[in-house]
Amino acid sequence: MIKKLSLLAFAVSMLMAIPVHAGESDAQIKSALPGYWKSPRHPYHFQANGLIRMCPEIGPYPATTTNTWDVRKGIFYQNGGPHKILAINERQFVYQEMDEPYAGTVYILYRISRQEANQQLCLVGLEEVGRCLAPSR
After folding, report:
1. Of the ranges 30-44, 65-79, 123-137, which one carries the lowest mean pLDDT score?
2. Do residues 19 and 29 make contact, with C-beta atoms less than 8 angstroms apart?
3. CATH number for the domain including 123?
4. Residue 43 burial (C-beta neighbours within 10 Å; 0-12, 13-18, 19+)
5. Helix (H, G, I), strand (E, B), or coil: what is residue 110?
6. 68 in Cβ contact with 59 (< 8 Å)
7. Do β-strands 127-133 and 51-54 pair in parallel, antiparallel, or remain unpaired?
8. Chain center to CA of 5
9. CA–CA separation, 53 and 42 (whole Å)
């Protein structure tokens, strides 16, 4: 059931996404990527200098994980690994793993605001006690 719902969600998202056309230059694709994106697990900050920083970047518990990204000949590279760009627009970035062992895996990122990316969940024990909002810069 979950697999069917995931496939349905992907199909709907593909209908709403604008596919990347072969005519788009690497520079055009690169200009669309900087900003804040959210995966099902974490928010990320794609920076124009080719860095990806896991969020939150500020606040009482900032993340320290960083990765790299690039676009060459229409292929998105994350930490050197190639990914086929399926779609990118102002709301979504959809790409597919090209190398084994995860070849074919599709990733969908959704654009979010800086404030959403830097929001933190405060936990005491295993109970949620409130949200920590990072101060705006």
Report:
1. 123-137
2. no
3. 2.40.128
4. buried
5. strand
6. no
7. unpaired
8. 21
9. 10
Whole-number Å distance between alpha carbons of 81 and 7: 24
Using alpha carbons only, give the angle 19, 7, 25 rounded to the nearest 5 degrees: 15
If one compares 100 and 17, the residue with the highest pLDDT of the two is 100
How far, in whole angstroms, is CA 75 from its chain's centroid?
A: 16
C-alpha of 9 from chain center? 17
How many Cβ atoms from other residues are within 10 Å of residue 36's Cβ?
A: 21
Range of the domain at 7: 2-133
The type of residue at 134 is: A
Entry pTM: 0.73
Q: What domain count does the chain have?
A: 1
| pLDDT tens-digit map of 29-51 | 999 999 999 999 999 999 999 99
Which H or E run contains 18?
A: none
